[in-house]
Specification:
The complex is a heterodimer of chains A (348) and B (290). Chain A contains 16 helices and four strands. With 348 residues, chain A is mostly helical. Chain A is globular. Chain B has 290 residues and is mainly alpha-helical. Chain B has a two-stranded antiparallel sheet with strand order 1-2. Chain B is globular and about 60 Å long. Classes of the chains: A mainly alpha (348), B mainly alpha (290).
Chain lengths: 348, 290
């Protein structure tokens, strides 16, 4: 009988996966995702695209909120900056899409330096407040800078063509999103198991102790914030391409809340959690709608008229219920199930 | 000069509303140590209830005021009991996230309970214009400034002299010692939520009186944030005065720089304040002992 999961060397503590079968199942999942555009209809495929794009953003926020324990209420600000950076570079100045993606990461990262440098000197909830402020300021800046952003009219963004490969079709664009999602996943997993990632977690768990151990709090917090903004900006660019049109209205404040809901539902501080949370949160409004439509067509009508309100109510409810009853999120639940499976009939 | 005075006076009037809501933030922060991100939404709900009373029951000023205060107390107590108390003892991160979740729920509930259209609150008072010299001021604006000043004095006296006020300060200073002295922390928290809901709710009703009710009213909470940061998150009176400063700054920025600036002046100010004096003008510096 397997009696436990013992780590005997430091190397085992920082491996990417702790058991070989994970690689096998990941390969199966990847094969499934590659086959998906051929199998799914365009409605289901659009959900897959949204999930993949959101995973990138959620993993970005996870570095800040999950690993380093800092709340950001304004990540939609970085999303919109990334989307605009890509749109301006590619649609307006006709640059190469890869340069556009680079800009979509670098511009929000610069913005995060400006916001983060003063506010990360402070402890506690101040970052939540300044990022909230940032997400409102950036909207005004975008609307005022008409020469660059077309103000309220927005910019239309075509699907990119990179090195002769056209990502015009939905299937091809899904592969592009899949590529970004996998790259981000590996990037965050590797950050987490590096020296930097350990510093982040140390700051989250006890910042005084972390400081005593020689971690430069300000530098590492800023690093987490900038990295997080970079990744979120990429997600924003992808979302802009998906919408095929970038405007301030396309990025409502609710997206910030959605991102936090994803992390809480999935389980804070875990890349797997960010992925699971994204799947649940993206599909939740649709699933609820389906569940209710079984009962009456009248409720179904409410879902069409008040879709945005119902969505935000669901997010709020999910945040509160998970924090109250399952604070470790879906990942925590999964660990419990796995342990029960291995140890049955014993409890521990 | 007259343009300047006009801007300052209407800035003080809107600033008094921010100040009331900022005091709501500070009351909760002071006694429970958390930032209530649902403050703006609670304000909005109280204002909507006041509007419902004025259209269905009676448009009398006193009936509406009494009903709104009662509703605000009930709202604060219900939220504290059902949503916040189960989170007692959980990390601040989780509790604050709960208030964010609550904010989204309350915000969207407006569209289901009421509707998405703007409404004017009419209690037969507040919209007539009084002339002071060459400057026109609405009676509602005068009333909100007077209310803010009266509440500032009342709250100062409450924290200074009343037994419950001292108990609240004790819980804020050190909740474990306060518990050992026989102060019920849950009762203090419940009181803080009710008080904060009432103070902010009054601000909301005044806003509805001078401007209009709409589902976008929750943004008042966002506008009041800078006020409470400026005054100090743990300084109730400071937050009230911070509101006045933010209101004036915002109006001057809007009047002289541009209307876009009006929306962000407060937020720009937060970032400056956090760089220079992060605990606010009247706040207490947080010293950590290891």
């Amino acid at each position: 009988m397997r009696t436990g999961d013992f780590k005997q060397t430091y190397g085992e503590l920082v491996t990417l996966v702790d058991s070989p079968p994970v690689w096998l199942w990941s390969a199966v999942l990847l094969a499934g995702l590659i086959a998906a555009p051929f199998v799914l209809n365009s409605y289901a495929l659009s959900f897959l695209m949204i999930i993949l794009i959101t995973v990138v953003g959620a993993l970005g926020l996870n570095i800040l909120t999950g690993y380093t324990g800092l709340i950001s209420l304004g990540h939609v600000g970085f999303l919109v900056t990334g989307a605009y950076a890509y749109a301006v570079l590619v649609s307006k100045y006709h640059m190469h899409p890869l340069l556009g993606f680079l800009g979509a990461g670098v511009v929000p990262a610069l913005a995060s330096l400006i916001v983060g440098a003063p506010s990360l000197r402070l402890k506690g909830l101040y970052l939540a407040i300044t990022t909230l402020a940032f997400s409102f300021i950036i909207n005004t800046v975008i609307l005022e800078a008409r020469w660059l952003t077309n103000g309220a009219r927005g910019i239309s963004v075509p699907r990119p063509e990179i090195f002769g490969l056209s990502f015009d079709s939905d299937a091809a664009f899904t592969y592009l999103c899949l590529g970004f999602a996998i790259l981000t996943l590996f990037a965050t997993l590797n950050i987490r198991r590096s020296r930097v990632g350990r510093a982040f977690v140390a700051i989250r768990d006890n910042d005084t102790a972390a400081r005593v151990m020689g971690i430069n709090l300000h530098a590492y917090k800023l690093f987490a914030f900038v990295t997080s903004a970079f990744i979120t900006g990429l997600s924003g660019a992808l979302y802009g391409i998906y919408l095929s049109f970038v405007s301030v209205e396309g990025f409502p404040f609710l997206l910030s809340i959605e991102a936090l809901a994803i992390l809480i539902v999935g389980g804070l501080g875990s890349a797997l959690g960010a992925v699971l949370g994204t799947i649940l949160i993206v599909l939740l409004p649709e699933a609820t709608r389906f569940a209710f439509s079984l009962f009456s067509a009248q409720i179904d009508a409410v879902f069409t008229t008040g879709a945005q309100e119902l969505k935000s109510m669901l997010y709020g409810l999910v945040i509160i219920l998970f924090l109250r009853f399952q604070p470790r999120g879906l990942v925590g639940a999964w660990h419990d199930i796995r342990r029960m499976w291995v140890n049955w009939p014993l409890r521990y | 000069m007259q343009y300047f005075m006009q801007l300052v006076i209407s800035g003080v009037a809107i600033g008094a509303i921010y100040g009331l809501i900022a005091m709501g933030f500070a009351v909760i922060y002071k006694s429970t140590g958390l930032v209530n991100f649902a403050q703006g939404e609670m304000t909005m709900i109280t204002a909507y209830i006041a509007w419902t009373i004025s259209t269905t029951v009676s448009g009398n000023v006193f009936v509406v005021t009494f009903g709104a205060i009662l509703a605000a107390i009930v709202l604060g107590l219900v939220i504290e009991r059902i949503v916040m108390r189960p989170m007692l003892g959980e990390p601040v991160f989780a509790t604050v996230m709960v208030t964010i979740g609550l904010a989204v729920i309350l915000r969207s509930s407006i569209n289901f309970i009421w509707d998405a259209y703007p409404h004017g609150l009419d209690v037969g008072f507040g919209r007539s214009i009084v002339r002071i010299g060459s400057i026109g001021v609405r009676t509602g604006q005068i009333a909100v400034i007077v209310t803010l000043l009266a509440l500032l004095a009342a709250i100062w006296a409450f924290f200074r002299y009343s037994k419950i006020g001292v108990a609240m300060r004790a819980v804020a200073a050190d909740d474990r010692t306060a518990l050992l002295m026989g102060i019920s922390a849950t009762r203090v928290h419940a009181l803080a939520w009710a008080a904060s809901s009432v103070i902010a709710g009054i601000g909301g009703v005044f806003f509805a009186l001078s401007y209009d009710l709409s589902p976008a009213m929750f943004q008042l909470g966002l506008k009041a944030f800078p006020a409470t940061i400026l005054g100090g998150l743990d300084a109730v009176l400071g937050s009230g005065l911070g509101g006045l400063l933010i209101g004036i700054t915002e109006n001057l920025a809007g009047g002289y720089v541009g209307s876009g600036m009006k929306e962000v002046a407060g937020f720009a100010m937060i970032i400056v304040v956090l760089m220079i004096r992060p605990f606010g003008i009247f706040g207490e510096r947080d010293i950590e002992r290891v």
